[in-house]
C-alpha cells in the first residue's frame, strides 16, 4: 500500500532487481526508497537470503534503523540480515573471523589508539600516535607543526613504529587497520574466491546508502562485492553532498564509478519532497557553477510554503547568542516551534556560540573537563552529547584512580573487560548529583566541594589528595555559568546530514564565508569545494524556514548570490 504514493522514479528503484547506481538530489526520497525496497524484498515469500543496509556513519545508520523499525521491517540485525556501518560490515565478514598473521590473540576494535601518546624517553615531548604514518612510522610534518614539534623525529618515529607493532601483536586494531587487512585478505585470490562464495550464499542484496561518503578503499570493496562476490549492490548517493573529504572522499571517483554501471542500472531520483520552492531555489545556488544543473522542483506538501529566506548580518565580536535569539524570533513569528529548529555550523564551537553555550578551551584540567561534561549532560538536548558526557566522566574517574597508565580509554575497557553495566549507573548518579543551577543558589566553591566528595572515592589509597586532582579554577565560573538558551539546539553540519527540520539557521563565519562565496560565484579551483558542499548539505535540511547568519562583510554578497535564483530573501542587521 505504501507503494501507491511513490513517484515513477521511486517505483523504478523499489522494483529494480540486481545492481544499480542511484543518484539523487536532497529530499528526493532516497531513504524512503530504501525502506520501501526492504518492504518489497522482505515481503516476497521466497525471501530467504539476507538483506544488508550499510552506511558510513553511526548517525546515518541510526536514522535508517529508526525508519526500518518504525515500519516494522528490520527492527534489529536478525539473521540473515545486517544493518550497520560499512566499517562494521568489513570487520564482521572480512577480518574478525580470519584473525591476523603473527597474532595469536583474538582481534578487537580499539577505535581511539590514534590518541595514544608516543614518548620515546623520559622528558621527551609526547606526540599522538596519529602524528605518524601508519605504513612506515614516519612523522607527518603538518601534524607535528600543529603541536609545535620541530626536533629530529628519529626516536619518536622508532617508538611510534614499535607501539603500532605492539598493538597489532595484541590484536588491537583501529578501523584503518581493519580496512587495510580486509584489502590485503581480498588480494589473496583463493581467499577472495572462497569468501565471495560464502557471502553470496548469505546476502541476496546489499544497499550502500550515502555512498558519496565512501573513500577509494571503500569503493574497491563495493566493487569486489558486486563483481567478485556477485552480490547485487545498490549504490545510493548524492555526489553534491559529499562532505567527508578528510576520509579521502570520492566525489570525482564516484562519477567515474557510475559509468561502470549499464545505462539501465543508472537510476535518477529528481524532485525535492522536503522543502518549499523558495528554499529549493536558494539551495540550487549553493552548488558550484559547473555542477549547478537545473533547479530541483519542490514536490512535497510544503512546496508552496511561502516564507522568505533570511540573512542575519552580524558584526561586532563575531558569532554570538544574538544569532540564536534572532533566529528563534523569526521562527516564533512564523509559528515554528524552537524544538523543530536547529542552528548548524561547520564547527561545534560556532554552533554553541550562536546559542550561548560554553566553548572555551578546556585543556587537560580534570575539574574543567568534569564541569563541561556535567553541563552537557544536564543542558544539552542532544542524546549523543549525553552519551559522550557519561563516557567522559567515566574517563575522569579512571584518570583519578590512575588506571589509564599510558593506555587509551578503549584499550583499558577492552584489556580489563570492563562491562558498561558495571560503571554506568554509578557515573550517571554522580553526574546527577553534580547538576549546577545558579538560580537555586549553587556556587563554584560549593560545586567543587560536591565534586570532590563524589569523586574522592576513586582516589587510590596513599595517593595525592582529591583537591590536587580536581582544582578549583576561576574558569569553572565560565563553564558552569554558560547555560544555553532553552529550546534552541546547535548541531554540526555532519550531525544534521540526512535529517530534516522545519527551521534551520546555518552559521557562516569569517574564516570561510568569503572563500565559499568566491567558489560559488566563480569556482576558480577546488580549495573551498568541500566547505561549499557543507553549506549545501546544511541549507538543504530546511523544510519551511531557512536562515543564514553571515558576517557583515559578506552578507550583501551572500544575499545577492542567493537572490539571483529569484528567491525572496530578507536581510536583518543584528
Ligand atoms: N513520494 C513521496 N511523497 C511524499 N513525500 C515523500 C515522498 N518521498 C519522500 N517523501 C518525503 O520527503 C522527505 C525527504 O525524504 P528522504 O529523507 O527519504 O530524502 P533523502 O533523499 O534521503 O534526503 P537527503 O539525502 O537530503 O537526506 C521525507 O519527509 C519523506 O517522507
UniProtKB/TrEMBL annotation:
Keywords: ATP-binding, Helicase, Hydrolase, Isomerase, Nucleotide-binding. SUPFAM superfamilies: P-loop containing nucleoside triphosphate hydrolases. Residues 3-276 form the UvrD-like helicase ATP-binding domain. This is DNA 3'-5' helicase. One of its GO terms (molecular function) is 3'-5' DNA helicase activity. One of its GO terms (biological process) is recombinational repair. Its EC number is 5.6.2.4. The keyword rRNA-binding does not apply. ATP binds at residues 24-31. It comes from Marinagarivorans cellulosilyticus. Pfam families: UvrD-helicase, UvrD_C. It catalyses: ATP + H2O = ADP + phosphate + H(+); Couples ATP hydrolysis with the unwinding of duplex DNA by translocating in the 3'-5' direction.
